[in-house]
Each structure stands twice: as structure tokens, then as C-alpha cells.
Amino acid sequence: MRVQQRGDGRLRRRAVAAAGALALTGVLSALAPAPDARAAGGPAAPAATDAASARAALPAPTGPYAVGTVTRLLVDTARKDPWKPEQGDRRVAISLFYPADRETGPRTAPHMDAASAAHFGSARGAGSFNYRVRPGAADWAATRTHARVAAPAAHGSRALPVVLYSAGLGDPRTWNTGLVEELASRGYVVVTIDHTYDSSEVRLAGGKPAESVLPSLAGAPAPEVDATLRKAVKARVDDTRFVLDTLGSARWRRSLPRGLGDAVDLRRVGMAGQSAGGFTAAQALHDDRRLKAGINMDGQMDFPLPDSTGSRLSTVAREGVDRPFLLLGSDGPGAADNRASWASFRQHSRGRQAELTMAGAEHGTYTDAVSLLPALARQGALPEEVLRQDIGTVRPERAVAATRAYVVAFFDRFLKHEDGQLLDGPSPRFPEMRFRGAPDS
After folding, report:
1. Which of 118, 162, 408, 436 has the smallest set of CB atoms within 10 Å of its CB?
2. Where is the chain membrane-spanning (predicted)?
3. Residue 32, class by beta-carbon neighbours within 10 Å (0-12 exposed, 13-18 middle, 19+ buried)?
4. Domains in the chain: how many in total?
5. Residues 46 and 127 sit within 8 Å (Cβ to Cβ)
6. Per-residue confidence at 106, pLDDT binned at 50, 70, 90?
7. Is residue 303 helix, strand or coil?
């Protein structure tokens, strides 16, 4: 979650100026169709052969376990929805990905259900406003995961560590499934959280998906932008704590696929997120001691305007955390926007920490965009220049391998207490990763 002054679907120049030189994500900017080649400054993109025909695939997980998945809708009766209180109790959709018995379960899950995929690919969906894929040019519903629906947990599963995952502002919980499946294939239960009315779309019980309220705030004045972003972070942290409460219910866990509820180890819970989700992971770690370690992938941790103390920094950026934390950054034009909050966070943190930068990466590199958008660009769903602005110049397969390796290594060290030394310093296996300090053993 950070300033993007490029026209890549993050908060653009007009919103940045309105916020007094700082804003956090592009959902509040004026929505516009993905640009043609003249807007992108490059040659004309080839037209997709048929409407909604462009397709892409997620990379397979590489761990020793098969992956299962199940989705649940949670209702927080202690809290009204912060975005639409007239709708009543807060509803939060989650998916669990976990080690499963091989070749079990009736079918693999779609990356997005059909209704959510249709909205994601529309002019008001995150595919357009965050990543500038031409509305209707990609068949988002065609992408499949590698996880089997409601498969039994892997035979003999006991005391599996848990990782919560929060996506970027406006992105759905599905938008890092490649990384989530990798963690599950390596022995983690991963819980992805949809932050309703923030996420591009959330499939609730019955009817069409609940759409994000953020696009309707395009062109809002600076104080409203600031208030909206503060509300979003608070709602996200509250959602996270509610999910933790739910996972703590033995009765609720009995509703999960066979063997899964008994395998969850809530003494070892970490959290990761990209952009606003990375901010959420840090703030939740600051606010809730049930979380033992966290990862922020390219997320700013401050706000557009100062608060009553005169600071734009969040409380977690001002005070840091006392548990292990990993910062994974990009090096595109927007990377400088992380520096103030990240520097303060590191200065005030007392836990083991590391900060790495991926050479050639952009903000979307740490999402499924790096796996899916190159194929869609080749089929004409977005211009090549926009692709570079979304995911940078790093080779996609290298970006996927590096992100997976460092995220797994971090949680292996601090949740499983297994150490492969990858976090100790630069590795010849991943020359694209530059260190700015490593965590203690």
C-alpha cells in the first residue's frame, strides 16, 4: 500500500495533489478504461482475438504436500459494518488453504468464482482500476488454482502453523493465490481474508458480489481521502482480529474438512500482506499479541495527512513491533514512498527483522499479477508498457521463485523454528534480492 504516481491504477496524480503530496492506493482516483498505446506511450497493443478470450495460468506449488481449500463466510455480531452500517453485522469472507491428501477432493477450485471474476474484469473491478487490464479483455474465470475443494487434511497432520493473508487496497483475497498455495504445500494453513466493501468484490450469501465502495470516492478532497484510508486500515485490523477469534473456536473448527480443525496450531500464527495488506499485517502484529511474526510486501505505513500529533506515521510505524518482521520492497519509481514509514518502523522495532529489495520489481510484482499479466499482455489485454509499470522488468519466474523462497524461509524460521540460512545474507541463488539487514537467528 503506497503512493503510485504513475498511472498504474493506484492513486494517481490528481488524488496525490488533493491529498497534499501523499496518498496510498489508486482506487480513489478517477476510474478510466485501460489506456490504449498512445496513452501508455508505446506501440499499439494487439487486440484480443475475441472478447474476454485472454487467459493465463497460476504457477504450481512446489512443496511436498497437495493443497486443499475451503471458503467460509463469517459474521461478526459484535460489530456493524464500518462502510455500510445499514447492512447490519460485519460479514467477512475467508478461504483456507492447507496441506491435503494427494489427489483427493472432487475438483480444483477456480481462482475466482464466476460472478467475482466478471466484476474483477469490469471497468469497476480491480483488474481495470488497479492493473489497467482492458475491461472485458481477459477471461478471469478460466484461471484455476491447484487446490482441491474441501479435500481432507493431509494424513497425520498435527500442529500446523497458521499464516493469515491480507491483499492490497481494492484487491480481492484471491490476488496472491500462487504464494498462498506455495505456503500450504509446505505445511502451513493459510487463511486469506476479504475485507468487504474495500476488496474489489466479495461473494456474500446469495445475490451478486458486494462491490468495493472505494471507486465511488474518486476525486474526494484530501481530508476525505485521509479519513477513508484510516477507516480502511482500522476495518482491516478489526477483520483480522475477528478471524483470529473465529479460528480460536473449537466448535467452528469442527465445521472444516476432515482433519483440518484438529491440525491448526494457534500458538504459531503469522501474517503477511501486500501493499495495504502489508500495512495491515504490521498494524495487526502491533495490536494483537496472538500474531508471532509478520511480512509486509511493499506496503506504506503512513497516511496522507498528519493526525493530532502532527505526524502522518501510523502507530506501528512510530512504535515498531517486538516480534520478527520482514519487509520486502520493490525498486520502481514509487519505492521511495515507503522510506519514511519503513525507516521509523525499523528504528523503533525490537524484534528480529530484515529488509530486502527485489531488483527490477514494481508494486504488483508481489501479487498474482506477476504470473498472470504477462500472458494476458501477449494476448492483447493490456499494453506492454502498462505491464512493465505493473510488474517491472524482473523476469516473472524469478520474481515468483524469490518471493516464495523468502516468505517460506521467514515463516519456517520463526513459526517452525527451522533455519535454512537464506535470511542470513545475500544468496547466489537469488541475486535479484538486495539486503538491508538480516534477522538474528
Report:
1. 436
2. none
3. middle
4. 1
5. no
6. low
7. coil
